[in-house]
Design goal:
alpha+beta; Nucleoside Triphosphate Pyrophosphohydrolase; 3 domains; seven-stranded mixed β-sheet; six-stranded mixed β-sheet; 3 helices; globular; binds zinc ion
Length: 276
């Protein structure tokens, strides 16, 4: 499938349009034969399915895609269900998950910028670009992105993995953290690994990136090599960290995440630049 992002919605609506409707972080799907399907324009004629706060996203194979919320929060009709977007990974195609993520990100931004941060007046959508503008003082707010680094640290034939307190499921992953103002990405990698695990790293190299719209991150992946120190867990974010070999990996995150791509690359001996 091919998704083309766009800002300006074409005039009119079509029954074949796809609607990514959210209630907070939960996505509306239509259940057919125990499978989840993204509602189309024809579905939205059902009672209690009136979309508001529309965000035009672009076209998937020529079909217009919209993000929206529902007027009122009175639940949804039979055959429809709201499900946490992350729980739908593996149940919807990857393209649909990422388009839904885009909708989730934009709707979250839109919801928390209804009032101007400078003067408190109501904001409104800007006509010519994706932004909210204050109707009184003119302050413009663009969709917020929170960049974070995520790092596979290797030491010979081992990789550093840790359990994070925020993980809802009992798995180990590579370390990650938000970029701070005034910091470049390489410095952020070194600071995060030092703060969270107490070790120094070198040879920081770019691996790849991935939107992480839960609700508004961009994950920037790196590899790095161990350079010194002993693991000392900060106890604020992590509960345990250790070095693991390929044949002794603990439970790791599901596919789709860049965390898993980094760990898979390590497991398949494909981490560029790592001292293996
Ligand atoms: Zn204002």
């Amino acid at each position: 499938m091919k998704f083309v992002p766009e800002f300006k919605a074409p005039p009119g609506r079509d029954m074949s349009d796809l609607w990514f409707v959210f209630n907070k972080a939960k996505l509306l799907t239509r259940i057919e034969n125990d499978r989840h399907r993204i509602p189309d324009g024809a579905d939205l004629v059902a009672p209690r399915l009136e979309p508001v706060n529309e965000q035009y996203l672009g076209k998937l194979n020529g079909r217009c895609c919209y993000g929206a919320t529902l007027r009122g929060e009175n639940g949804c009709p039979d055959r429809f269900r709201f499900t946490d977007l992350r729980a739908l990974i593996g149940l919807l195609t990857e393209d649909l998950i990422w388009i839904a993520g885009r909708a989730n990100h934009l709707l979250f931004w839109h919801r928390i910028h209804r009032y101007c941060g400078r003067c408190g007046h109501r904001t409104k959508d800007k006509a010519e670009e994706r932004a909210l503008v204050c109707a009184k003082c003119g302050l413009v707010n663009y969709p917020r992105l929170s960049p974070a680094v995520i790092v596979a640290v290797t030491r010979g034939d081992r990789i550093l993995l840790a359990r994070n307190k925020r993980f809802r499921r009992p798995f180990y992953s590579v370390l990650a953290g938000f970029v701070e103002p005034g910091e470049d990405l390489e410095a952020c990698v070194k600071r995060e690994i030092r703060e969270e695990a107490g070790i120094a790293v070198r040879n920081v190299r770019y691996f790849g990136s991935q939107p992480w719209p839960f609700p508004d991150s961009l994950m920037i992946g790196f590899t790095a090599e161990y350079a010194g120190g002993e693991i000392t867990v900060d106890d604020v974010e992590l509960t345990h960290a250790d070095w693991f070999t390929r044949d002794n990996l603990p439970k790791i995150p599901p596919s789709l995440s860049i965390a898993r791509q980094l760990i898979d690359a390590f497991a398949n001996n494909q981490l560029n630049g790592a001292a293996l």
